[in-house]
Design goal:
16% of the residues are buried. The chain has a three-stranded antiparallel sheet, with no helix packed on it. The chain has four helices and three strands. It is globular. It has helices at 8-15, 21-37, 40-43, 46-49, and strands at 52-53, 62-65, 71-74. By secondary structure, it is of the alpha+beta class. The protein starts with 7 loop residues before the first helix and ends with a strand.
Length: 75
């Protein structure tokens, strides 16, 4: 089992009005997928999550899409 920890800034956005209810459902699905199956599960559905590694100052992190403009950055 993997652990998903939400940073304070992201938690504030999640609890506030910065995200739509649909965004919140999708993010929860992402978190449940990672917690249950690990991040490699995201790579099995590239058309859904578009998960990829990041470079430069974000080296060592990955990003997944949860909407056209929304991204989850994690490591």
């Amino acid at each position: 089992m993997w652990q998903v920890k939400i940073e304070d800034e992201a938690a504030t956005a999640f609890e506030g009005k910065d995200l739509t209810e649909d965004d919140k459902v999708i993010i929860q699905t992402w978190a449940e997928t990672v917690a249950t199956h690990g991040p490699n599960e995201l790579l099995k559905r590239p058309s859904v999550w578009a998960d990829h590694s990041l470079h430069g100052e974000w080296e060592g992190h990955r990003a997944s899409s949860f909407s056209y403009t929304g991204r989850i950055i994690y490591k």
